[in-house]
Amino acid sequence: MEIKIKVPASMSNLGAGFDTFGLAVNLYNIFDIKSSKDFSVKFVDLEIKDEENLFLKVFYRCIELFKKEKLPLEITIKTEIPFSRGLGSSSSAIIGAIKAFDAIYDKKLEHDDIFKIAYEFEPHPDNLVPALMGGFNVCLKDEEQTFFNTIDFPKELKIIAIIPHINILTEQARKILPKSIDIKDAIYNIQRSNLLVSSLINKRFELLKEAVQDKLHQPYRKSLIPFYENIELLAYENGAKAVFISGSGSTVGVFCLENEEIIGKTCTEFLKSKGVESTYKILSVDEEGASLWKS
């Protein structure tokens, strides 16, 4: 038996769509599974202890839930998605583990079954949905069900990830958020999140700069990202249509129609001049989500 699973990264929130918008992009965690004499999980070019391995935790939870025997398998994980950078690495690992279990034990899990397990490890749908489904998603969950719509993302828009080499844990980024908000701020975000969706659908790209403004999380989280406001300004000066914090950060997301290399180089060179190492990636939308090959 040989199984290969590929699960994309994701950019979430996109400004005003806090815990709601998720965009799958073409960075991947790749899981290769084959029959072996013993059970083992290893990473390519990484050393991660079993007790810190999220894939393994989720896979073992699936075995426990469905009362299955652990089979002799060799699982090799190649990670393209950097950890703790706001690009959905945890959701990719979670979905990868559930899809691996599903394929190995031929469970044929429905989407709601997958999300129910996933929420034990990641309570928010905005990274899980794009990791599973691909594309640009508007999503929510209630006590019983996950609701989402996948919307065509304009092919004209280029996607840039400016990635400072700084880890920001989701728990850390949530602790600094206020426990309550003013109704004016709620209205502010509702208006702009709707504007973002309609701007993408109607290709009114000149509206995106306003549509990614936010009062719920970015004003607080930008303090965790060195020189965020400088990066934002540089990106807009070089033609960006939208600049936002991806997930909890530290990645800064940029949408543009042109100058993607110029924007990426300008922002990373500026950060380097300030003593902050970073990289940039020109990305595209992953429209497949978690994909699987079995032989």
What distinguishing features does this structure have?
2 domains, seven-stranded mixed beta sheet, single chain, 295 residues, alpha+beta, four-stranded antiparallel beta sheet, globular, Alpha-Beta Plaits, Ribosomal Protein S5, domain 2
CATH topology of the largest domain: Ribosomal Protein S5, domain 2
Which radius of gyration do the C-alpha atoms yield? 19 Å
Number of domains: 2
N-C termini distance: 6 Å
DSSP strand content: 25-35%
Gross morphology is globular
Task: Tell me the name of the CATH class of the largest domain.
Answer: Alpha Beta
Low-confidence residue ranges: none
Explained architecture:
By secondary structure, the protein is α+β, with helices and mostly antiparallel strands. The chain has two domains: 2-152 and 287-294, Ribosomal Protein S5, domain 2 (2-Layer Sandwich), CATH 3.30.230.10; 158-283, 2-Layer Sandwich (Alpha-Beta Plaits). It contains ten helices and eleven strands. The protein has helices at 54-65, 89-105, 111-118, 125-133, 170-175, 183-202, 208-211, 218-221, 228-237, 260-273, and strands spanning 2-12, 21-35, 40-43, 73-79, 136-141, 146-151, 158-164, 240-245, 252-256, 278-283, 291-294. Strands 1, 2, 3, 4, 5, 6 and 11 form a seven-stranded mixed β-sheet that branches. A four-stranded antiparallel β-sheet has the order 8-9-7-10. A hairpin with a 4-residue loop joins strand 5 and strand 6 (146-151). It is globular. The protein starts with a strand and ends with a strand. 45% of the residues are buried.
